[in-house]
Amino acid sequence: PHMRAHAMTRAPLLLLTLAPVVSAGCYDAQRVSVRAPAGSYMPVSFDLLQSNLGGVFDMPSGRFSCPAPGTYVFFFHMLKLAISVPLYVNLMRNDEVMVSAYANDGAPDHETASNHAVLQLYHGDQVWLRLHRGAIYGSSWKYSTFSGFLLYQD
């Protein structure tokens, strides 16, 4: 009798309406070939993608295109070619410098230039790396990388 009474009791049905979530994607790009000096203010392109969820990163242009508004995190690490020229790299949002990295000890050695940024982006914004001066070393060891992901969607 006790089991029967319990089985007949029904909990109210609760319906939730969820807001649609846009898949904003993430990427991890690597450079395996040398980017020799070809002038100042050159975009850095990439040869390899470890991941590119949502197809948000274009390797030939080296640009991330924002699919949905939100807060994004970007990291980059560039290994300077072993020449006596300093390496300057800028992280760009559209055509504006957000952060920069520098490597130079005055000797023809490899050095790493790294930085990161947390950026508020809107649909269509592009984030990319600009080689301001110097040369980027590339090898199958994948020392030069550029990554980004969505932290919080607006």
Automatic annotation (TrEMBL):
This is C1q domain-containing protein. It holds the Pfam family C1q. SUPFAM superfamilies: TNF-like. It is found in: Secreted. Residues 19-154 form the C1q domain. GO terms for cellular component: extracellular region. It comes from Electrophorus electricus. Residues 1-24 form the signal peptide. The lineage of its organism: Eukaryota, Metazoa, Chordata, Craniata, Vertebrata. Keywords: Secreted, Signal.
